[in-house]
Design goal:
- It is built from four helices and 16 strands.
- With about 280 residues, the protein is mainly beta.
Length: about 280
């Protein structure tokens, strides 16, 4: 039996103009997305800050799904609706869907890294923690321990998921969207593109995505990261429990050094800090 993990918050986008609409609004190149495939994508505001980060699935020519792993689909649907105007685009929040982890016994065979396969009324796609099945129902009660293991794989993959409270807080480069190939510079215009391009070619971003080892329970998204002097050095994006400690991702100032604290617990930068790309370095 598939293992239910948590609610799957999804926006359904449909209509004859949905491909052009998503290409104009989102920062990854939607034109490269064939039917039955998916990609990580983001919707930025005019200041280049990420409103939402999500997996975009192209189910067929007129039907797309945007899955937001930490929620926010209802707000995204409402915000996107302001930009539809006369386009043939319909937006719907799919409430009641559930994220499951598929096991080999569930009939999920090998999948391509960008493949979105129809599966028992929903869709299956490969994720760092295994095969995800987004389905309009839950097959059993959610498994908290399985979700913690799943989310830890997301942390290890450095996926910059955004909780609703963090919408509009971070520019694309602070989340590493350029490194993921999500913030593109080889497609048409989209909201925030000018800011993203300026930071890419001229530099100036002073915060970056970092993995953190936390000596305590998983702090909530948005928890501040303080240095020894009590100065704010960044924020937690999300974290996963690992027994009495936790591992997480945060957006951290380049000026941070030594041990930080999150909710009073020691938070240590895990591994070496990735160097920001030189201004003008081509993005993926």
């Amino acid at each position: 039996m598939a293992s239910p993990l948590c609610a799957a918050d999804i926006v359904e986008l449909s209509g004859a103009d949905v491909a052009a609409f998503t290409q104009a609004q989102f920062c990854n190149d939607v034109r490269a997305l064939a039917t039955g495939r998916w990609q990580w994508n983001a919707w930025l505001d005019a200041q280049g800050r990420a409103r939402h980060f999500f997996a975009l699935l192209r189910c067929d020519a007129r039907l797309w799904l945007a899955w937001l792993p930490l929620g926010g689909a209802a707000a995204m649907r409402e915000e996107l609706a302001r930009f539809v105007f006369r386009s043939d685009v319909q937006l719907r929040h799919l409430a009641g869907w559930t994220l499951h982890r598929l096991l080999p016994a569930d009939g999920a065979g090998p999948m391509g890294i960008d493949q979105a396969m129809p599966h028992r009324g929903g869709f299956a796609l490969a994720q760092p923690g295994g095969i995800a099945w987004l389905a309009p129902q839950a097959e059993a009660a959610a498994d908290a321990q399985a979700l913690a293991t799943w989310r830890l794989a997301d942390v290890e993959a450095r996926l910059p998921f955004l909780a609703p409270a963090l919408s509009g807080q971070f520019v694309a480069q602070a989340l590493g969207l350029d490194r993921l190939g999500v913030a593109r510079f080889d497609k048409g215009c989209y909201p925030g593109q000018e800011i993203v391009a300026r930071l890419h070619f001229r530099g100036g971003n002073k915060r970056h995505l970092q993995r953190l080892s936390i000596a305590g329970p998983a702090p909530a998204p948005g928890t501040g990261l303080l240095d020894a002097a009590g100065r704010n050095m960044g924020s937690i994006l999300y974290a996963a429990p690992t027994g009495s400690t936790s591992e997480g991702l945060g957006v951290v100032s380049d000026a941070a050094s030594g041990v930080l604290r999150a909710d009073g617990c020691r938070a240590t930068l895990a591994g070496s800090r990735p160097l920001p790309p030189d201004p003008g370095t081509p993005a993926a």
